[in-house]
Specification:
The chain has a seven-stranded mixed beta sheet with strand order 1-2-3-4-5-7-6, with helices on both faces. It has about 170 residues and is of the alpha+beta class. Helix 2 crosses helix 4. A hairpin with a 6-residue loop joins strand 2 and strand 3. The relative contact order is 0.16. The protein is built from four helices and seven strands, in the order βαβββαβαββα.
């Protein structure tokens, strides 16, 4: 299934991944965060016949402190730039078919391409606690950093994957 950036006309209503905060984000906030506020870009897998979103992820610029043991760039910098996978979800009707893995691979491909254009030491993910194991399959490592969260969003576990590992994995 092709993955592309969200368009205003994509059918987002009725998306249900099992985590209400991720459903709400896609339906109400993804488009305005992308088009109006430029806070991140949401990428979607869309059913061509219905234009219904079956899965999505949101990417945003970020930086991470280098005092974390899993973040070891050269140069002694206090912080390094990275790309954040802020959200990733698959509609329940499409779960179990490998779409989540496709979305992660697409996000990593974008991060790798961006690392050639701008500074990018790695990729971080705000993983819901029950999703940490999913990201570990892609070699993400949980970090000891507490991620910022709002009242309507569960506290995520921040995970890290260095861009060198992404480069090797993507060949």
């Amino acid at each position: 299934m092709p993955i592309r950036s969200l368009e205003r006309s994509d059918a987002r209503e009725g998306f249900s991944c099992g985590e209400p905060s991720l459903d709400l984000f896609l339906e109400r906030y993804a488009w305005q965060n992308q088009a109006r506020y430029r806070l991140g870009v949401t990428y979607v897998a869309v059913d061509d016949a219905t234009r219904r979103v079956t899965g999505y992820f949101t990417l945003a610029a970020a930086s991470i402190a280098c005092d974390e043991p899993s973040v070891r760039p050269p140069g002694g910098y206090a912080e390094v730039p990275c790309i954040r996978i802020a959200r990733l979800a698959v509609d329940q009707r499409a779960q179990g078919m490998g779409l989540g893995s496709e979305l992660v691979h697409a996000a990593l491909a974008i991060a790798l391409a961006e690392s050639e254009r701008v500074g990018c030491a790695g990729v971080i993910v705000d993983a819901l606690p029950e999703a940490v194991g999913f990201y570990e399959r892609f070699e993400f490592s949980p970090m000891g950093v507490v991620a910022v969260t709002g009242a309507k969003r569960p506290r995520p576990t921040l995970t890290w994957l260095g861009i060198g590992t992404v480069r090797r994995a993507m060949g």
